[in-house]
Amino acid sequence: MPQKVFYFAYGSNMDQDRLRGRIGSFHSRKRATLNGYNLVFNKRDSSYPGSGSANIVRGEGRVEGILYEIDETSLKRLDYYEGFPAHYNRIEVEVECEGKLLKAWVYVANENKVEEGLKPKREYLNHLLKGQDLLSEEYIEELQAVETID
């Protein structure tokens, strides 16, 4: 039986239907926070010039997201969809979930794939907002305030 791992989603995979379409099922879905990072939209989206996908960078802030428990085989499928290792690197971080610190995998854009001044497409940002059932009101407002390219 495949080993289970945690995956922290801060971008479009907060949309559980999108994630299911990529990897199939998952075992659990919970709110989690990654401290010491900030959410940015600086990962170049090759399908739409000037648009950026979600990424995280070290900083003074915190990133809210969804902690999924998935099988290692599902993680390998996710590697494919996230463009690992060419577009994103997968690193292990500690996230806070239900008062505990848990180790989880997260994807961080490779430096040669980032660019300043990018903005997400509205459709892309809507995927992030589909995680709002597990996000704080404050964080939802921050996401809603993000300026989009369209």
Automatic annotation (TrEMBL):
A GO term for molecular function: gamma-glutamylcyclotransferase activity
Keyword Cell membrane (UniProt): no
Domain of life: Archaea
Gamma-glutamylcyclotransferase AIG2-like domain boundaries: 7-117
Pfam family, one: GGACT
Keyword Nucleus: no
Keywords: Lyase, Transferase
UniProt cross-references to InterPro entries, sorted A to Z: AIG2-like_dom (IPR009288), G-Glutamylcylcotransferase (IPR017939), GGCT-like (IPR013024), GGCT-like_sf (IPR036568)
Protein name: Gamma-glutamylcyclotransferase
Source species of the chain: Methanosuratincola subterraneus
